[in-house]
Amino acid sequence: MSTKRSKKKVRSFPDLLATVTARLRPPFGVVLGSPGDAADVIRSLPDGETTCYQMDTYQAARLRELIGDRAVTTVETHADLWDCVPPSPSGRGDGGEGFQTLIYPVPYGGERALKLDMIEQAYHVLKPHGTFILLSPYDRDDFFAPALKKVFGKIHVPMDGDNKVFWCQHDGERPRRRHEMTYHVRVDEQTSYSFVSRPGVFGYGFFDQGGRALTEVMELSPGQRVLDLGCGVGTNGILAARQIGEAGFVAFADSNMRAVALAELNAKALGVANLHAIATHTLTDWPDASFDVILANPPYYAQGAIVHYFVERAKALLRPKGVLYLVTKQVDAVYPVITEHFAEPEMFENRGYVIFRAGNDSASSARPASSEHEAERQE
Predict the structure, then answer these.
(1) Tell me: the pLDDT tens digits for 316-326?
(2) Which of 65, 211, 308, 313 could form a disulfide with 283 if both were Cys (CB 3.0 to 4.6 A apart)?
(3) CATH number at residue 266
(4) Cα–Cα distance, 340 to 202 (Å, whole number)
C-alpha cells in the first residue's frame, strides 16, 4: 500500500466531508474510525438518524462519551458491519432496510485486510442506490481506488477533495465475501487443530509466537477454570482445554467483538466442552475469585495501560493459589507491574519471549521454575 503524507496542512475529515455535502442523506452510518474522528464526522452530518459501527467495546464506549446525548445517534458493536443495519421506517421488513449514506473515516495505518473487509461489507448494508463515502487520511495512495472499483464497479473522486475523498453507489446485488484465513497448529504428533481467523483480530492468518511460547510453558490440571484474557481467535484457551479436560471450564474475553465470535466458533468446532465467550473491556463480568488460571498475551501497541489493567483484574479474578501466565518481550516494563500485585513471579524464556508465572499467594509462587525455560531477571 503506497501512501504519502503532504507537507501542506492536512485537511480534517469534516472538511473532506464538506466536498460531498450533496450526497449526504439519512439514515447515516459511520464505519469504524477512531472515536475522535468518528465523533467529528457525526457532528458534521445534517440532521438525521445516525448509526455508528465499532468492532471494539472500548472504542465504542469512548465514542459514546464524545458524542454525549445526541438523540439521533446510536453506537453499535458487532463482529461484522453487515450486522449493523437500520430497519425499514415501516418496520415491516419491506426491503427498505439499510443506510442511505455510509461514511468510512479511514484511520492512518492499520490493517490493510480490514480496510478491504469494510469496503466489501459496506456494499451490503446500503439501500439500493445508497452512497458509500470513503475519507482517506493519505495524500496519495494506490490502494483505495482499485479496491472500491472491484466492489462497487464505479467510483467518483471530487476535484476539490484532494484525491482523499471517494464515493460510490450500491447498484445491484453481489454475493457476500468473508475475508477469512484458516491456519493449523500442531499440538502433538498425531493432532493438529484448525483455527479460523479474520481481519481486525490479532493473529490474522497465523499463531502468534508469543501465544505459542505461553502455551508451551503453561501447566494446568484437570477440572480447572481458565480465563483466556485478550483471547483473539481463542488459541490459548482452546489449547488449555486439552489439559483441563471435559471437567474444566474456559472463558474467552476480549474487547474485540469479532475476536470473541471467532474464539467461540473455534472452541465449539474443536470440541471444548464447557466455555463462555464474552466481549468486554472492563473485565467485570465475573465475580472475584472465579478462576484457577488466567492466560494473558497483551497487545504491544498499548502495553502500559493494558498490562496494568490485565494484571490488576487478574489479581481479583484469581482464586487463592490461582496462577497468572503473562507473556511479553517488554520484561523491564512488565516486571514491576506484576510485582505490585503478586509475590515474586517466576520467569521462563521461550521462543524469544518471557512468560511470567505469578501465583496468587506465596505457596503458589514458590514452585521451582523449569530449568529449560527459566530466564534470569535483569536487575
Answers:
(1) 999 999 999 99
(2) 313
(3) 3.40.50.150
(4) 28
Is residue 137 domain-shared with residue 255, that is, in the same domain? no
List phi, psi (to 5°) of 327. Answer: -105, 140
Assess if residue 185 is contained within a domain.
Answer: no
Grid cell listed for 328: 511479553
Q: What angle do CA 299, 324, 245 make, to 5 degrees?
A: 105
**CB distance 208 to 232 below 8 Å:** yes
C-alpha cell at 265: 466458533
pLDDT at position 145 is 93
182 domain-assigned: no
The per-residue pLDDT for range 268-308, each reduced to its tens digit, is 999 998 999 999 999 999 999 999 999 998 876 555 788 89
Residue 352 CB burial class (10 angstroms; 0-12, 13-18, ≥19): exposed
Please report the beta strands in the chain, taking only residues with DSSP state E, as ranges in sequence order.
3-4, 28-31, 50-54, 73-77, 99-105, 126-135, 140-141, 165-169, 181-186, 192-197, 225-229, 249-254, 275-279, 291-296, 318-328, 346-350, 353-359
Domain that holds residue 15: 3-169
Residue 240 amino acid letter = A
Residues 252 and 339 in one domain: yes
Q: Are residues 146 and 249 in the same domain?
A: no
